[in-house]
Amino acid sequence: MARAGGITNAVNVGIAVQADWENREFISHISLNVRRLFEFLIQFEATTKGKLASLNEKLDTLERRLELLEVQVGTASANPSLFT
């Protein structure tokens, strides 16, 4: 009888160890995927910041050109004799 109980305990321990390893493997996969996601987000942020900075510079340049053209059109409208 003691022998049957010992086998049952050994089986239960084996099942518990197997379940523990499966849980650890699952947690390891989750941790790895979270780390990959975090690294992607950091890279995405850096890339996006760079692209937005470049677009902002281009937009600033276009705004300055537009302001210059507005002044030139205003000057031409106010003094049409300058262009005749």
From TrEMBL:
Statement: the UniProt record of this protein carries the keyword Zinc: no
Gene3D superfamilies from the UniProt entry: 1.20.5.110
UniProt record, GO biological process: actin filament organization; cell motility; regulation of actin polymerization or depolymerization
Domain of life according to the entry: Eukaryota
Entry's localization field: Cytoplasm, Cytoskeleton
Coiled-coil annotated residue ranges, if any: 45-79
InterPro entries: BRICK1 (IPR033378)
GO cellular component, one term: cytoskeleton
Keywords: Coiled coil, Cytoplasm, Cytoskeleton
GO MF, any single term: identical protein binding
PANTHER family hit by this protein: PROTEIN BRICK1 (PTHR33668)
Family statement: Belongs to the BRK1 family.
Official protein name in the record: Protein BRICK 1
Organism name: Tetracentron sinense
